[in-house]
Structures are given as C-alpha cells and as structure tokens.
Hints:
By secondary structure, this protein is an alpha+beta fold. It is built from six helices and six strands; from the N terminus they run ββαββαβαβααα. The chain has two domains: 1-59, no CATH class; 65-183, no CATH class. The chain has helices spanning 31-54, 86-96, 112-121, 138-147, 156-167, 180-190, and strands at 18-22, 25-29, 65-70, 76-81, 103-109, 133-134. Strands 5-3-4-6 form a four-stranded antiparallel β-sheet, with helices on one face. α1 (31-54) crosses α3 (112-121). Mean pLDDT is 85; it is low at 186-197. It binds zinc ion. Zinc ion (ZN) binds next to α1.
Amino acid sequence: MTTNNMQCVETECTQEGQPYEIGGVHLIMCQYHRYQLATKSKERARKVIAELDSIGAITHHTEGWTYMVRMANGMVKIGTTKNPELERFQGLSREKNQGVPVHVLAIVKGGESLEYLFHEKWFSLKVPGRMEEFHPDPVLLRWAEGLGVDSEVNTDRYEGWIEKRHNRKDAPIPEVFGGVVEQMAQLRESEAESFWE
Ligand SMILES: [Zn+2]
C-alpha cells in the first residue's frame, strides 16, 4: 500500500499534485490539470450565461461589481469584487502587479454573471494561459472607457493613494502605458486580423 500518494489523477500525468476540490470531491491534481479543469468549468458557465443573456433571460446580475483595469504588462484584466474601492485595487496592485498601481478603466455594477458575459464578449482577445487577462486592443480599451466608473463607486481614496506614491521619490512609478494604444492601432492596420488568434 502506498502512503502519501500525491500523483495527479489525470490519466498518464506523472506530475505531483495537490488536493483540489470540485463538487465536494477532493482530487489530487497538478497545477496544469487544475488550470485545465478550472478553464473548462468557466467556459461552460460563460456559454450558459451568454445563452441566457441572448434570449433576454437575465433580468439582473449577481451581486458585486465587475472591473476592468490595465495591468503593468499592458493587459486588461476583467474581474469581479464585492468592494470596488481602495483595498481591492491596492491588493491587486501589490499582489498581481509588482506594486505598480493598476489603472482603473471601468467599474460596472453586477458580479460574476456580468463578468462571464464580458469574458465571452472579448474571448478572441484573451491571453492564453491567463484566466482574466485580455490583449489591449483599442476597441476593447475604448469600450471599457466608455463604460466608465459607476457613480455609486468612489475611487477618490484609490486615486489619492496613487498620487501619494507618485510623490514618493523612493518609489517612482514606471511609465508603462505610454504609446501602447497607438502601437496597437498601428499593428491593427499593418497586420492581418488574425494577429491574436
Ligand atoms: Zn496532471
């Protein structure tokens, strides 16, 4: 009898795994197969929500907020939160953006169900291997900026935090967004439409 068998349950996978809970069942899965499974279940949810939306069956979205932010790597992250104010964006900046403040493009009322609709809408721009990141196509950027920040959300405290950081000489914020929109527009013109496929 083997003890401490932590091999991934996927057929022919020899990687070591970690317990992963799905539908109340704890499976041992490696990081790659955990990601695959999560991607598949998200894909299913996206399709169901999009179908419901297309027949007008969604009268209101789940609780929460969907945000679109520009990351230091230039990509657009579309995610949800219950608290779309200072703490959330500080957390994102610190944990997912090497301490560089994320640039808020839009915050819209509506939680996961709305996030899934947006993910479906922009799926052709999704960054492979990243759950919530999308290429900064000018059409996506303009769309997000057009949605803007819902009037119920107050981003003053977050903007104040960014300003304080800007003014600190020891922690300059790199210019990460300059020119990307223009570059993308040029790419669009010069390259085939299939650039991101
Ligand atoms: Zn595996």
